[in-house]
Amino acid sequence: MSGMNSGLSDTNSVLIAAFRSALLHQGIVVLAVLALLALAWIGVREWIPAAKAAVGGRAAAPPEAPGRRLLRIGFGLVWILDGILQAQPAMAEGMPSQVMQPAAVGSPGWVQHLVNWAGTGWSYHPIQAGAAAVWIQLGIGAWLIAAPAGRPARLAGLASTAWGLVVWVFGEALGGIFAPGLSFLFGAPGAVLFYCVAGLLIAMPDRSWQSPRLGRQMLAGLGAFFLAMAVLQAWPGNGFWTGSSHGRLGTLASMVQSMAATPQPRFLAGWLTAFQSFATANGFAVNLFVVIVLALIGAGLLTGRPRLIRPALALMAVVCLATWLLVQDLGFLGGVGTDPNSMIPILLLAAAAYVALEQPAVAPAAEPVQSLAAADAAPAFEAARLSRARTTLAGAARAFGAVRVRAVVAIWAAVVVVIGAGPMMMAQASSTADPIIAQAIDGNAAPLNYVAPGFTLTDQNGHQVSLASLHGKTVLLTFLDPVCTSDCPVIAQEFRQADHLLGATSAHVELVAIVANPIYRSVAYTRAFDSQEGLAGLPNWLYLTGSLPQLQQVWSNYAIAAQILPAGGMIAHSDVAYVIDANGHTRTELDFDPGPGTSSSVSSFAVELSDAAQSVMRSA
Amino acid sequence: MRMNRTTVKATAASRIVGAAALIAGAMLAAGCGGTTASPGGGAAPTVSVPLATSEGGTGLPSWAVVEMGGSSATYNNFWELFVRPAGSAQWKLATPLGVASNGGLAIASTGPGLVAGFQPSQDLTFSPLATAPSSAAAWSQANAPVSPGLASVPDALAAGPAGQVLALTHTGEVLLGAHEGTAWTRLATLRSIASSAAGRSCGLTALTAVAWTPAGAPMVAGDCSRPGAAGVFTLSSGVWRAAGPTLSGATGRTGSDVIGLATTGSNTTAVLAVGSGATARVFAAWSADGGARWTLSPGLRTAALTAGATPSVSFLSDGSTGLVLTAAAGRPAASRAYTIGWRAGQWAALPALPARSGPGQLATLAATAGGDPQALIVDRGTLTVWQLGSGQWALQQTVRVSLPYGSSD
Fold first, then answer.
1. How far is CA B2 from the centre of its chain?
2. Tens of pLDDT along A182-204?
């Protein structure tokens, strides 16, 4: 999956520091928004007593269905845990390569393309994307927990479903449902799909929760799911029936072994290792047991009979917890875990379904107007008036003052989601990567101010060009080997893209490269390079060369090393770019080693270069 | 809430249908995840020839190109050029400097010296050239590179008697360099030769080699899809004419690929791969008059060829032809080597190489001035030269090369 990452380590200190800084800044904004909302709410209630009175006068809302409340709070907490996991230092850079890419391995090409598209977008803006995921998930979690019953909670459910789908499609590669070896034990069909289902259930109208029918349908759905999982688990050819074969571990034992190898408390690794040994020695028996248990759970839930459902749920709880512990390793330990995997969401859904079956919501006993009649009529009348006046600013303020604390928190949580998504959406609109990637590879640009050493060399058309002749223009200068196989073509493309990013101001910029190869330095080679890189038609591009003494003098003046390597090695030379202002002063030096040279790092360098050029032009 | 009997039935039925649908979905998903059968049939594959080769002539230096490194990252393996000066028994490293050789090297002897071209690699799409006037390997850049880059075949370059160079590019163009590549002009393309009368009669599908006739006319070779034809062509009065041997009898029932072509003095040798699988054979063909008349060797038919071994050709300094058969991927058999002398009556199978040479490590063959075969074996950064004498291989020389691993990262 090319372009899926910048090639940087997920422990890169520059990226981690930038990620922490972004989270800190956005965290301050999030708290400030909360404080502002709280102040506004208190202020409105103090200054518009009618709003305060409206709250007291409102009829008590009908109690929320216990099953729905369980789903709302349970998945709210899970989203908050996921948001906290997204804040792990390695997540910003590691998400595409450590999470998304591995999830798509084995899936068909179109799934991989889909995931690659999203991963590339993430890798272009790792800080914004990483921070966005944190705030969106924390926001949805808080929204779910805080939202009172009714429309706010239903909206929170829809938000949970929408974001869950994004995560399921791009982060989990559709849960691997199109890849071989799908298994309940490994989290099929993707943990976040359960978040989506839960979100939809939360978004259902209150009346849906007022009969045991919903609970029965949920349990039946789960039953069918478990039966399907039993079939998958029993399917031959996926390696589940084998503990080991010809010295190679079977699928289950191999999975457990890899889980045991991740960093985690020793006792947990010990349990995993013990289970792996057991699964290796008794592969067939273990899988037979799993298949039977899954089928029993499925059949029990499908009957719809409480006396069979209860033991099935108990069995499910045991199996899910055991799987969560012994196969899924709690889902988030070691590496860059993003969620607690599928067992907890399944159990939450099952528990909510059972509660919905046994304790459906109580239907309102009477019409709201009758409740109001029993209370003081004046505040009710005021509330109704407030409702009509919401279209005006004052009315909106009164309406805001009339909401409960939980609603204020829910509004804040929704704003947190927007705070997370906004910068990411703006970043996605840019076709180039964040310059932080270039800085992570080569460090920050060094600001300078000294007279740039002069030179007179021959351009690709055979004309003499001196640095003095370029005065009046900002010069972006670099050193390229025309027969280089890796870095130089990449750097040339960065220059070309930087020229594009400069737009109209590129008319005041000259892109200059000087040959950095002591052997291959004829004009024919600079022309071949220009043709190869599509630079021949760029009007402000100069590729200069000269005699070896001439070049050596320039290299020396600009501290460029150009070393001939033996035995088929490419010329080793410094990757550096200088920004020379219109007066011939060197103003910036950029280390310009493109590193792995992926699309995201390349465009990141181009942004850094064009930013530096514009900065120099502005300061002139 | 009470339900009537009909509702209960309907709920149970829908539940069963839902469960069945999910199970069916699961079965489909399991099916989707299984391996799919690869499409069978298709045209017989064109022979892919390794770039490893050697060439030289009596009284002239011998040159050999081998790949070294053993890395799974191909850009970290480097093609090295070795030279054994005329009259010397020792090989020495002579890889031209200044360009990464991880894409491969093509060489063309200019008599005492050599023209070497770098195959395109990574982001480099054209081919820089280097020339050396002698076996001292004092390299200088040719004035103009080959653009587009050289074809990935060992005979992509050929030096003419008057210092001109022919180059075969990966786009199927035949370029002529005036003097060791000072300026290039296009002589032909695959399409132009294929559409000529000679090309049509052969069913030309690819160009695989360039050479010169003893008289100094450009010569190209390629793959023919028509049975009985061998794709060798010469340029005469601006027209490409068929100049290959005729394949008849059982040999002429399939198309053929020219996997090696060279002219030394007045002798032109072409090596042809004919058929595939059980019918795969290799022939040498010799012409002393620029392709007007050919003598065809007996076909070499071995189990290795049948099993898909890759043949690579070397033109030895004594005028004979060497052939190395490298086992196909996934078959860890040792490489086997054969030689055949000029117009000789049969291929000679060389003894198996020493056990310590692993599968696929036999890079190429060379020959001493006395005509004794030498095997050049590569193991990562070490080249060992083995001399055949009295029916046994004897280690003659070891050259350790400090490879620039990571220089092209």
1. 82
2. 888 888 888 999 999 999 999 99
pTM given for the model: 0.68
Please give the average per-residue pLDDT across B364-371, as a whole number.
Answer: 79
The DSSP 8-state label assigned to residue B150 in this structure reads: B
Task: Please give the Cα distance from B27 to A238 (Å, whole number).
Answer: 12
Flag whether pLDDT at A294 surpasses 90. yes
Question: How much of chain A exceeds pLDDT 70, in percent?
Answer: 89
Radius of gyration of chain B (CA): 26
Q: Distance between CA atoms of A90 and A130, rounded to whole angstroms?
A: 10
Q: Does the distance separating the beta carbons of A228 and B22 come in below 8 Å? A: yes
Report yes or no: B98 at the A interface, CB cutoff 8 Å.
Answer: yes
Q: Which of A238, A240, A483 to mutate to test the interface with B (most CBs of B within 10 A)?
A: A483
Residues of B in contact with A566 (CB under 8 A): 93, 95, 97, 402, 404
Using the predicted structure, report yes or no on whether residue A274 has a pLDDT greater than 50: yes
Whether B32 contacts chain A with CB within 8 A: yes
pLDDT digits (tens, 9 = 90+) for A438-493: 777 767 777 788 999 999 999 999 999 999 999 999 999 999 999 998 888 888 98
- Phi and psi at residue A439, to the nearest 5°: -65, -35
Q: How far is B171 from chain A (nearest CA, A)?
A: 15
B26 touches chain A (CB under 8 A): yes
Q: The sheet that has B78-84: what strands, in order across it?
A: B53-56, B62-68, B78-84, B92-93
User: B403 in contact with A at a CB cutoff of 8 Å?
Assistant: yes
Rg (CA), chain A: 31
Residues A565, B407: C-beta atoms closer than 8 Å: yes
Per-residue pLDDT, averaged over A158-178, amounts to 90
User: Directed axis angle between helix A109-124 and helix A599-619, to 10°?
Assistant: 30
B15: left (phi over 0), alpha (psi -120 to 50) or beta: alpha
Q: What is the least distance, in Å, from the CA of A606 to any CA of chain B?
A: 18
Mutate to test the interface with B, among A105, A460, A519, A527 (most CBs of B within 10 A): A519
**Nearest Cα to B233, choosing from B198, B285, B265?**
B198
Nearest CA in chain B to A516: B98
Condensed to tens digits (0 to 9), the pLDDT of residues B210-252 reads 999 999 999 999 999 988 888 999 998 889 999 999 888 767 7
d(CA A194, CA A74): 12
Which H or E element spans position A85? helix A66-86
Render pLDDT for A110-153 as a digit per residue (tens, 0 to 9).
888 888 888 888 888 888 899 999 999 999 999 999 887 778 88
B38 pLDDT exceeds 60? no
Minimal-distance CA residue of chain A relative to B125: A532
- Distance from C-alpha of A29 to C-alpha of B35, rounded to nearest angstrom: 51
Q: Give the Cα-Cα-Cα angle B232, B234, B239 (nearest 5 degrees).
A: 125
Q: Cα distance from B162 to chain A (closest Cα, Å)?
A: 23
